[in-house]
Model the fold of this input.
Amino acid sequence: MIAVGSDHGGFELKTHIIKHLEEKGLEYKDFGCYDENSVDYPDIAEKVCRAINNKECENGILICGTGIGISMAANKIDGIRAAHCHDVYSAEMTKRHNNANVICMGGRVIGRELAFRIIDAWLEAEFEGGRHADRIAKIHNLEKIINRKE
Ligand code: RB5
Done:
């Protein structure tokens, strides 16, 4: 199950992404927003990332105007590895090396066809584990040593 969310800046692209997921027969849950009225992207990032952390969803797609704000918000949440990607190579590599559980894009930056390819590359790639797993463990250790104790 893929958690999908956007603010108003990503709403239009999100509607196309949802159609793409449906065409591929992939299950998703839409955490809003549901129209172009202004909303705050941290609220959407929170909903999607909570669904991942409570295992309701396996991974997530987040869209705002640039993809930047919503990725910043998502990466504040323990356990989330959100990759801001606007190219197919990075999308593939962020699964293979970072095991990104969220991918973020800007609805005002890229077109829908590129967004579909980015999502497909990320979903189809496999995490390589090994030394990359050790590095991810170090990322999550930073959540404890920096955010919690200083
Ligand atoms: C909303 O206008 C815009 O700031 C937001 O979608 C996003 O681009 C923030 O990073």
